[in-house]
Amino acid sequence: MFLDLSEEQKLIQDTARDFAKAELEPVAASLDQGDDRSPLLNNLKKLAELGFMGLNVKGEYGGSEAGVVSFSLAITEIARACASTAVTVSVNNMVAEVIQAVGSEEQRNAYIPKICSGEYAAGGFALTETCAGSDPAGMCTQAVDDGDSWVLNGSKIFITSAPYAGVFVAWAVTDKDAPKGKGISCFLVEAGTKGLVIGKEEKKMGQHASATNEVIFDDCRIPKSALMGKLNDGFRIAAGELAGGRIGIGSLGLGVGLAAMDYSTRYATERSQFGQKISNFQAIQWMIADAYTELEAARLLLMSAAYRKEAGKSFAREASMAKMFATEAANKACYKALQMLGGYGYTQDFPVERYARDARITAIYEGTNEIQRVIISRDILKNFS
Amino acid sequence: MKLLVCIKQVPDLESRFKPDAAGVWYNETDLAFRMNEYDEYAVEQAVRLREQLGEGCELTVLSIGPDRVVEAIKKSLAMGCDNAAHIQDAAAYSKDPWQIASIISAYAKERNFDIIFTGMQSQDRGSAQVGVIVAELLGIACTTTIVNFDYDNGTITAKRELEGGIKGVVKLKTPALVTCQLGLNVPRYPTLPNIMKAKKKEITAISVAELLKEESLAATTSFHPPAKKGGGIVLEGDIADQVEKVIAILKDKTAVLR
Amino acid sequence: MKTLLIGEYREGKMLESTYELFGFAAQLGGESAMLMVGSESQLPAYGGTLYLADAAACGEYNPDMHKKLILEAVQIENPDCIVFLHSSYGWDLAPRVAVALKAAQVSEVIALADGGFEVGCCNGKMRRTVKPATAKTVLTIQAGSFPVLQPGGTPDVRKLEAAGGTTVEFTGYEAAEKKDVDLAKAEIIVSAGRGVGKKDNIPVIQALATALGGELGASRPVVDAEWVSHSHQVGTTGQTVSPKLYVACGISGAIQHLAGMKKSDFIIAINKDKDAPIGEIADVLVVADVMQFVPAFTAKIAR
Ligand SMILES: Cc1cc2nc3c(=O)[nH]c(=O)nc-3n(C[C@H](O)[C@H](O)[C@H](O)COP(=O)(O)OP(=O)(O)OC[C@H]3O[C@@H](n4cnc5c(N)ncnc54)[C@H](O)[C@@H]3O)c2cc1C
Ligand SMILES: Cc1cc2nc3c(=O)[nH]c(=O)nc-3n(C[C@H](O)[C@H](O)[C@H](O)COP(=O)(O)OP(=O)(O)OC[C@H]3O[C@@H](n4cnc5c(N)ncnc54)[C@H](O)[C@@H]3O)c2cc1C
Ligand SMILES: Cc1cc2nc3c(=O)[nH]c(=O)nc-3n(C[C@H](O)[C@H](O)[C@H](O)COP(=O)(O)OP(=O)(O)OC[C@H]3O[C@@H](n4cnc5c(N)ncnc54)[C@H](O)[C@@H]3O)c2cc1C
């Protein structure tokens, strides 16, 4: 067994870390506080130029062909500095990958290079609806065949990057009468298409720099060629791609958790109470030991899931396990880190409260952790019955 | 045109350094290594020249050291070097600048490089000797501490950084060697596709025994932390408390606060 | 020990740092002679032998020829040590002389050590003791590590003639950028280092400087990153300052920075790393995050 990273993986990790430290970290706090999103968009462009938007995408479409392990490492390093940037990069990669996996050659050539090069600031993944969150098969948005085009009606909610996405992968019901999950298809909708309306931006607890909006289809007419994959095969596509995205979100959680613990651990070695460094107290030492142990376990789960995907093995169960464990480890780490800073941790003078807010959503999006448990247990139980 | 850039891998300088068992250099355990900062400027400048000259130009990166230096070599390849020489030497750390320079010049001698780039010094050892010694051993022109570089038709025009912000402008005919100073350029990040493509570039491994014929001229007999200067006050702990103490000290010891 | 000291001369003037070579020689003991490529109108106040070549004929920067001149003097004097300053002139020339003599070179000596020389390493965090194994040794000494010593007297000048060509053609000097602040006159300087993190934090450091009635200084990376202009840079390639109070915020204390400010009357350093080398020369080292400490400090004095 070989647990070391290859030199290329180490270099990608170093590049992500150096870039994050130099470019992302200095703006992370002000992005969290302010309304000006231009530093985020600037950095997304630079990250695209470096090849971070298509880590697991083929070179012919402008990708880096760096693999899934590198993807995970990169997201973690980016998230250590700025979770909002990290989630955008993660979703962009997911969108590029889904087009590569199921798109036609024309669709791949039309969109993937634009995402990878940064010509599009982002790609959108439009699945969730008000009536269909954990249960996306229950969606209501409809696509109707109108001769040479499809007409979409309905609305999506919580769509990451919607105001600056150049293209959306969107799901809609194409066969109302089919059994649940068998009548949904997947489409590519370009920004600016008539009838595609970007709705209000949610005011969130964290990850402020990453926009999350409603996306409305109001008689939105798209060409026939915008159907991606087979008709009525959309739900399977969504489920498959989300599994890959989970590696990204788990890696994001890991990065935020590490940032929080690194900060609080240094703080503990500097802060004195009762005439000594608080790192001398066993209560603090145990927090450090527990959090770092869980984060290390999370890292190994993520590496294993990423390795399996990269090697072409089944990885859905492992990706769910890694996502669930890593995002919970991250939330616990943020809780502890904040606790270690005492009252200061609760103030915005220190970054830990931001980490805690940013980490929270990772247990919810890309499938809530309850849904991960459903997936994991179902996959295990099927071998017992 | 044939170009060579020489790089060294050094530990992250924010690390804590502990002497090794022999007490003559640092213990490498727990240290993270990266490319010497000065060498990043050298690689960037070499790559820019490589791009300027285009076809028919070949840029080789060389590093002496144990297996770990391959990561720094690959970074250089990803930044735009064409091929690499890894002089394998697990004991590179124990060699003096004279020996390191002898190894490089032995490698470079038959290969007739037109321009050689090195860092001005290494961050860990800081001798600022290797580049100049290589040039002297090869008998080629050399200038040091450059903060500006231009090349045109066999002539290098460089600006050397002198004390007090003054610069000295010099011209050299190739073959020549320059040592690169901080601020010469802004080194690029290697792009991910280039990191992956660099895998296909050739890294020639050469055993140091093939190139090293020289004994060391100076020996390090001890590696240790600086003697603590007495008198300095170290204030740790609570910020408000530190502020109070600093103000009290300033009032007591200086005339700046009244 | 017999030493040959290599004096420095630039833009028609002997550099004052030349006197540090005498300070070093005095500590080492034994006889010494000096060589300088300079001019007769700029002689060091020293009564010993001075090998003098004319800079007008030999160039102020002409390493090939200067090497030859030094080797000539070495031939006559047969010194044990040839001593340069660790400067843009010294570190450029010293290895050339060392190679010609196949002599060991020890760079940036900060002190004499039992049978060898003490030098800094790891960005000034650590020290090495180096012992040369050759009969002759070439040394470069760190600026500011040895006392300035003016022996007094008039040298016994022995002229050396220009000889040989050059592979490096020196075409002229470029003046330092215009200053928008004169740190040399400031009584209080508050300097920002890489540890302040980002350009947006510079105003916080500036605010402390203003509150104290002083000027803003900076370390080199802060200038290179264009957070502040070059006129604020303190150190060997910036300005040398000696204010009444110097406050170093997030500055590690690299040798080249220390060389520019260690003569300050009182030094306060703020650094999160208790082991940062700046602690060695600081009168007070505040172990804290700059962005925590400085605003609190400023608020207190402003009141
Ligand atoms: C910031 C942000 C960004 C987002 N980005 C995107 C995006 O880009 N694209 C996109 O399509 N979606 C996105 N989402 C939506 C996200 O994926 C959903 O919020 C998530 O899937 C949960 O759906 P819901 O909010 O409707 O919660 P619900 O499904 O209503 O769940 C509520 C609670 O019930 C639990 N629950 C539901 N079903 C079960 C069950 N069967 N067993 C046990 N517990 C259950 C859930 O775990 C949860 O605790 C984003 C959301 C946020 C907040
Ligand atoms: C919003 C807010 C409102 C507040 N309001 C008030 C108020 O109205 N009046 C008031 O007086 N104060 C108030 N406080 C201050 C609050 O009571 C303190 O923040 C709290 O007592 C913790 O102290 P500290 O922040 O200095 O943390 P620290 O004491 O520095 O603690 C840091 C960490 O070290 C741990 N620790 C410390 N000592 C030990 C030990 N011996 N063994 C094990 N672990 C230890 C702590 O549990 C914590 O995890 C307020 C704080 C906030 C954030
Ligand atoms: C020929 C030559 C000439 C040079 N000339 C000069 C010169 O004129 N002037 C000059 O300054 N340099 C000069 N240098 C560069 C010099 O060697 C150093 O690289 C430079 O001084 C380092 O600057 P720094 O201390 O700001 O940065 P670093 O060495 O990176 O140190 C940053 C410090 O900040 C601390 N820190 C980080 N974050 C925080 C925080 N949040 N709170 C508190 N502390 C923190 C770190 O612990 C560290 O000690 C020269 C180099 C050469 C080779």
Provide a concise account of the structure shown.
The complex is a heterotrimer of chains A (385), B (258) and C (303). Chain A has 385 residues and is of the alpha+beta class.
Q: What is the H level of CATH, i.e. the homologous superfamily of the largest domain in chain A?
A: Butyryl-CoA Dehydrogenase, subunit A, domain 3
Tell me the β content of chain C. Answer: 25-35%
Strand content of chain A: 15-25%
User: What is the average of the pLDDT values of chain A?
Assistant: 96
**What is the CATH first-level class name of the largest domain in chain C?**
Alpha Beta
Number of helices of chain C: 8
* Sheet of most strands of chain C: 9 strands, mixed
Let me know the largest β-sheet of chain A: 4 strands, mixed
- Overall shape of chain A: it is globular
Instruction: Return the CATH architecture of the largest domain in chain A.
Output: Up-down Bundle
Could you tell me the number of beta strands of chain C?
A: 17
Can you identify the CATH class of the largest domain in chain A? Mainly Alpha
- What is the fourth-level CATH superfamily of the largest domain in chain C? HUPs
Q: For this entry, what is the oligomeric state of its chains?
A: heterotrimer
Give me the side-by-side strand order of the main sheet of chain C.
9-8-7-10-6-1-4-5-11
Description:
The complex is a heterotrimer of chains A (385), B (258) and C (303). Chain A has three domains: 7-120, Acyl-CoA dehydrogenase/oxidase, N-terminal domain (Butyryl-Coa Dehydrogenase, subunit A, domain 1); 125-232, Beta Barrel (Butyryl-CoA Dehydrogenase, subunit A, domain 2); 242-381, Butyryl-CoA Dehydrogenase, subunit A, domain 3 (Up-down Bundle). Chain A is 52% helix and 16% strand. Chain A is built from ten helices and ten strands. In chain A, strands 1-4-5-8 form a four-stranded mixed sheet. Chain A is globular and about 80 Å long. The mean pLDDT of chain A is 96. Chain B has helices at residues 37-53, 69-79, 97-109, 130-138, 192-197, 208-211, 239-253, and strands at 2-7, 9-11, 33-35, 58-65, 83-88, 115-119, 141-152, 155-161, 167-173, 176-180, 203-207, 218-224, 233-235. In chain B, the strands form two sheets. A nine-stranded mixed sheet of chain B has the order 9-8-7-10-6-1-4-5-11, with helices on both faces. Chain B has a two-stranded antiparallel sheet with strand order 2-3. Chain B has one domain: Rossmann fold (3-Layer(aba) Sandwich), CATH 3.40.50.620. In chain B, α3 (97-109) packs across α4. Chain B has seven helices and 13 strands. Chain C has 303 residues and is of the alpha/beta class. Chain C folds into two domains: 3-159, Rossmann fold; 183-302, TPP-binding domain (Rossmann fold, 3-Layer(aba) Sandwich). Chain C has eight helices and 17 strands. Chain C has helices at 18-28, 55-58, 63-77, 90-101, 202-212, 220-224, 255-261, 290-302; strands at residues 3-6, 9-10, 13-14, 32-38, 49-54, 81-85, 104-113, 116-121, 126-132, 137-141, 156-160, 168-174, 188-192, 215-218, 245-249, 266-271, 284-287. A nine-stranded mixed sheet of chain C has the order 9-8-7-10-6-1-4-5-11, with helices on both faces. A five-stranded parallel sheet of chain C has the order 14-13-15-16-17. A two-stranded antiparallel sheet of chain C has the order 2-3. In chain C, α3 (63-77) packs across α4 and α5 packs parallel to α8. The mean pLDDT of chain C is 93. Chains A and C meet through α1 of A and loops of C. Bound molecules: flavin-adenine dinucleotide (3 copies). Residues 271, 273-274, 278, 281, 283-284, 339-340, 342-344, 346 of chain A line the site of one flavin-adenine dinucleotide. One flavin-adenine dinucleotide (FAD) is lined by residues 91, 125-128, 133-134, 158-160, 204, 207, 212, 361, 364-365, 367-368, 370-371, 374 of chain A.
